[in-house]
Amino acid sequence: MSSQIKAFFILVFLGLIAFGAYQWGKSTLVNYEEDMSVNACPVVMEDIIASAQGNVYEMGDEEESEEYVEPETYYLVIYSVNGDELANPQLSEVPTDLEDEQTNSELQKEAWEIFTTLIPPQDRVMVAQYNVFTDGESNTLAAVDQTSIDLTDWIVEVDIADLEDKHAFIFTMVHEYAHLLTLNASQSTVDAEIYADPSNVDLLTSKDSICPTYFTGGGCSMQNSYIRAFYNRFWVDVAPEWQAIDALQYEDDLTAYYDGLFNFYLKHQDQFVDDYATTHPAEDIAESFTYFVFSPKPQGDTIKEQKILFFYAYPELIELRQYILNGTCSLFD
Ligand SMILES: [Zn+2]
Fold it and tell me: How far is the CA of 80 from the centre of ligand 1 (A)?
């Protein structure tokens, strides 16, 4: 063997060792990261999941006998958002008893800082507005919506009366963020006609019929979107049964709708992380994402566990989970 050929083989051999070492390093790094996330702050994580348990469709007897009165919602302050910063607070007219909450900018900023601690800046560039509202304690904790000026921009809305239960608040903020993650303009088309008339069943039906992928109810999902992959994998089989129940939400009396969803949940409990997830595929992916963040990695293979494992197929979401968990743990230090 000539010395040149010998040198070539030595080089190849060294290359293979280096490659092997790199791969080994990479795999141990991944394992280490997964272990770290599981061990981040397990008690807090458990408490956050526990805060979300409850029967959303099972109305108590008293509530059923009395007419349910929707609580009044008041917008207190509207801020514009620039990265982490809040600017131009606009105060709306509110009843006198809400003036204290309206002027408590410290508490309003505290709620905003929980959101910015949880979600990395580059993952919330779509947030352009922050609304502080209240409908009293519990009821709606938080929400997201598109801005009317630019449908690719989003509003984060927070009920300032619900900050006390920090675990439930954090669960809800991550759930709401999951809507931004799965419905923003890179994931689904924006549709001004639906935005202007979101409950127009004829309009929704016609938009659905021309959408070649999964129609989210607000737009047509992109080919590579998370929600399209999630829907195709987990929803196609149950969709006809669910759609028949979903259609009941347009009736005056919503009892049949809520009973239908609750029975649907009881029948398919192995498929949904909780009862609220049966409301809509967009709620299912948001709720499953929140369980993905705060639960240890599932070891089983039921469909609801597969829904959590679904997100582990995306390295960017594993990274996001780690960031949210680090932020969560820091909020309880
Ligand atoms: Zn939701």
Answer: 22
